[in-house]
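Changelog-adjacent note: as of this version, every example in the card shows the full chain rather than a window. The one below runs 190 residues end to end.
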Amino acid sequence: MPSREIEFKTLLTPAEFQAVVAHYQLTPDRRKTQTNYYFDTPKQQLKNQHWGLRIRTYADYGEQTLKVPATDGGLWEITDKLSLQEAATLTKNGTIKAPGQVATKLATIDVAPSDLHPIASLKTARWEFAIPEGLLALDESWYGSQHDFELELEVKDPLQGKEDFHTLLRSLNLNYRPGENKIARAFKEK
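Full-length structure tokens:
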């Protein structure tokens, strides 16, 4: 069953990132590491549809997720859970799991799992926790020769969420720096 993702994000400078870490008193033991492996067809059919496909590995499991734009804002996320071994095998072989919810949705635009290949990868160290405005993620990411910092706020309502996001930035003395999503940034560095 697809889930809805509505999030607002801003890129941070290293100093801003450290200030947010200090503000929330974040400790290294609460930080999780994940690696994203992104896929598309040679003709970039997913990119052209504004879809994104990744396999993400955590310390003890994996998942493959297809992100599809929702007509009224945000994204629909379609996810197949993977064991860590499955995720390792799939990323090593440069393919995705089929059958599954992701493969079924891809078939609606005539993309078969065999049409896909890895296009980029990105490693992120993330703090993620609930605040009154929604789910806050503070990310430090590495891809290609790049290293960047990002704050994301996942919310339930797009209008209230946008207002809450900008209020949060002001309260933390942060400038809004729009940035492309992780898949677009990683794709440029492949």
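Structural remarks: Residues 24 and 129 are 10 Å apart (CA to CA).
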